[in-house]
C-alpha cells in the first residue's frame, strides 16, 4: 500500500482567536483574546454525519481523524476530496465510490455511531478487547526533555485559554501539536494527520493537557500509541482501559514531577533528582 | 401545578474515589485517590437512550436532568420511577403512560437527540432564539463572598482531581454543589435537582470550574439562569450565545479577580480594592 495517496483538500484553517472587551474587577475595560469556537458539519457524499464545535485551525485533518476514529472509514484511498467552506460551516467529504454505495454500506452504522456514547459504547469495548499494544521503553531523562520542549507550544492557550492541547511525540521531539476547544477534536486532528501521512503509532508518545478519561485512552489505543502523558489527572476507567490495552500512563507531568499509574516497568529511571524531604504517602 | 410530585427513586450514589498505586519521579510507589468513572445507561420504559460516563454520586438526578436538558421530557409527573442498578450499569425510568406511548411520541426524537451534536444543533439554536433572560443585579462584594464560600466545596477534586464542579447559587449561598468526570453531567445533575424541587432559575447564579463554551451557555440558558461564573476561560461562541440570550458572564473568577465578558451593567462595583499598579491592556 502506498502511504502517499492524498485526497484533494482545501486548507481552510482560520485564525483561532478574536479580540473582545471585558470589564475587570477595577471596572476597567480591557481588550482580551478569546478562543474561537465554530460549528463544522461533516457530510460524506451529502450524507450529514455530525456537527463538531471546533477552533477551526485544522478542519480537514479534524474531518479525516473523526471519520477514522469513529470507524466510519478505514482506507484513505476511499476519500476523493475534503472541502471545507466556513460560509456554510461545512466539511464535505466526497468518496471515490460515490453516494449510493456509501449510504448502503454505512447508513445504519452512521446512525449508530452518531447516536451518542450509548449505542457505540459496547462496540468500542469489544474492539478494545482485541487491542494489546507492545510496550515502549522510555527514559525518565527523555520525558523531562520532552516536557521542556512542549513548553514552546500551546500558543492559543497562552493567548486565550479555554483550549486543550495534544501532541504526537517521538523520543524527545514533537511531530505535531494541535489545540482545540474540545480535547477530542485535538486528538482527532492528530489521528487525521497520522492517517494522511501514514504515521505509525507504535513508537510514539501522546501528550495531552487534558485528563486521562476513558475516552482519551480509547482514542489513543485505537491510534496504536503505547504511551500517554498528561499534565492533568486520571480517572478509574481511564486507568482500567490502559491496563487492559497496555498503555503506559503518566499523569500530573509538569517540570520534574509525574505519577505513573500504569507501565512503570517500561521506564528507565536515569535521572538524579535532588532529595525529597517530605513524601507523605509513600508505600513502604 | 404542585411542585411536590416526586417520582419514586433509588438512592444509588456511590463513593466517588478509589485508592490506587502510582510510581512517582523518585520511583516511589504512592497510594493515590482517583476519581471513579462508571458507565450508566439510561432507559425509558426499556427504550435505550444513552450511556453516560459518570462519577456516580447522583445517578438519579443525572438521569432526571439529562432527560430535561435534552428536551426528552417536560413534565416530571410523567415519570413514575427512576431505578438505578450499578450491577447492570442501568438507570431505568418508568413513565406513567407506559412503553408504547413513549415510543410513539419520542421514538424519532430520541434518535435525533442521541445522534450527536450534529442533528440537534440547529434545533437548540432555534430554541435559544426564543429565550431572553431578565438580568439579575449583582454586587461585586457578594461575588467575592460567594467565591470564598465555594472554596469549602469541590471535595472530589481536592482528593483526586480529574473532575469538574458546578454549583447552583443564590445570593452568597450555595444551594448545591455537584462534581462529575464530565462537566455536562454535573450541570445535568443540577438541572435534575431543580426540576425535582421546582427551583426557579431566574434569581440564581451558576458556578462552574470549567470553561464557558457554547454547550455550557446553552444549558444554563435552558435552565433559565441569568448569571454564569467560571474559574476558567471563555470561547467566542459561548460569549455570542450569552449576548443573544442575556447571560451575565464572569470568567477567570478567583480570589478578587474576574473578567466580565457580558452584562457588566448588571454589576454594582461596591468594593474598594487596593490600587493596581500595572494594567497593561486597559482601554482608555
CATH fold naming of the largest domain in chain A: Cytidine Deaminase, domain 2
The CATH superfamily of the largest domain in chain A is identified as Cytidine Deaminase, domain 2
Order of helices and strands of chain A: EEEEEHEEHHEHHEEHEHEHEEE
Mean pLDDT of chain A: 86
What is the count of distinct domains of chain A?
2
What percent of residues of chain A are in strands? Answer: 25-35%
Total DSSP helices of chain A: 8
The coarse overall form of chain A would be globular
Unreliably modeled segments of chain A: 105-119
Q: What would you call the structural class of chain A?
A: alpha/beta
**Oligomeric form of this entry?**
homodimer
Largest interface between protein chains, with number of residues from each side? A-B, 72 and 72 residues
Share of helical residues of chain A: 25-40%
So, CATH architecture of the largest domain in chain A?
3-Layer(aba) Sandwich
Rg of chain A is 20 Å
CATH class of the largest domain in chain A: Alpha Beta
Largest sheet of chain A: 6 strands, mixed
Sheet with most strands: strand arrangement of chain A: 10-9-11-12-13-14
What's the total number of strands of chain A? Answer: 15
N- and C-termini, Cα separation of chain A: 53 Å
